[in-house]
């Protein structure tokens, strides 16, 4: 594998930092290549603005149009181009972050806002049908992704009956709406729970789980998301009403899987 490890934690001495170090060591041991984007260490700017596209601030900023033009004409800000080059090189993206307020740290959200511009991460159209190529098809098809997240909550509270909600639901905007949207296949996430109460024994277990997930990542079945253009959605991008479904049919995120996702491994 050629891995881009995208890391968002402000302290490399943290549990997250130790796990990244262990993960990179594991990749080396198995002969994989890797590059790292440590966003806090890089002092990554997460705020998208007109300067990203050399856009004249006297005119209204239409982000999709401006970003696509800047990408096509080579006017993107240098820090954005550098991250796109890393992702172009990689066949695997590992996204590692602590789960804060049910989502990614702002610095990581800003990486996606600025790097996944139209023309680079999305914006293709099927010439035969005119339909946009997204949700399983697109510019990043052929790459795989894995989310590694730590949480202060106990494992059971991030399950289907836990007060925090099921982890796959919490990660749906990232796993489905960002990674799958751009064409990447998405492996089931790796959760490291009770991060603020880690003991040496718990850390050893977490490190072992991470090593095993990395070892098997090339052959791990991805989350069974539905392809937008695979026949399950009509021309209005709604699920066909006659699609075979259990009774009652699932709603919300669950409706967009072809089968129930595997339970989060704890």
TrEMBL record:
Give GO terms: molecular function aspect only. NAD(P)H dehydrogenase (quinone) activity
Name the residue ranges with Pro residues bias.
243-252
Q: Where is this region: Disordered?
A: 214-266
- Give the Flavodoxin-like fold domain ranges: 1-213
Q: Which domain of life is it from?
A: Bacteria
Q: Which UniProt keywords apply?
A: Oxidoreductase
Which InterPro entries does this entry report, sorted A to Z? Flavodoxin_fold, Flavoprotein-like_sf, NAD(P)H_dehydrogenase_qn
Respond yes or no to whether keyword 4Fe-4S is given for this record: no
The UniProt entry's GO CC annotations, sorted and at most eight, read: cytosol
Q: Which family does it belong to?
A: Belongs to the NAD(P)H dehydrogenase (quinone) family.
Q: What is this protein called?
A: NAD(P)H-dependent oxidoreductase
Organism of derivation: Streptomyces auratus AGR0001
The beginning of the lineage is: Bacteria, Bacillati, Actinomycetota, Actinomycetes, Kitasatosporales
């Amino acid at each position: 594998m050629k891995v881009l490890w995208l890391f968002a934690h402000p302290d490399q001495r943290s549990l997250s930092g130790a796990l990244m170090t262990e993960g990179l060591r594991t990749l080396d041991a198995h002969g994989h290549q890797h590059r790292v984007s440590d966003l806090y260490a890089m002092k990554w700017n997460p705020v998208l603005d007109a300067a990203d596209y050399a856009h004249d601030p006297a005119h209204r900023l239409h982000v999709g149009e401006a970003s696509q033009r800047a990408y096509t004409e080579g006017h993107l800000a240098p820090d954005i181009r550098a991250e796109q080059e890393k992702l172009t090189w990689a066949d695997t993206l590992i996204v590692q972050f602590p789960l804060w307020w049910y989502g990614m740290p702002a610095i990581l959200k800003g990486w996606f806002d600025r790097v996944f511009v139209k023309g680079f991460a999305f914006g293709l159209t099927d010439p035969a049908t005119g339909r946009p190529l997204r949700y399983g098809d697109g510019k990043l098809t052929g790459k795989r992704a894995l989310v590694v997240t730590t949480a202060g909550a106990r494992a059971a509270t991030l399950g289907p009956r836990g007060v925090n909600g099921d982890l796959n639901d919490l990660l749906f905007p990232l796993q489905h709406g960002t990674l799958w949207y751009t064409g990447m296949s998405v492996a089931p996430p790796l959760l490291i729970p009770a991060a603020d109460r880690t003991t040496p024994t718990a850390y050893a277990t977490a490190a072992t789980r991470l090593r095993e997930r990395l070892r098997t990542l090339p052959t791990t079945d991805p989350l069974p998301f539905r392809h937008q253009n695979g026949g399950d959605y009509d021309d209005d991008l709604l699920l066909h009403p006659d699609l075979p479904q259990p009774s009652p049919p699932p709603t919300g995120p669950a409706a967009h899987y072809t089968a129930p996702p595997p339970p989060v491994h704890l």
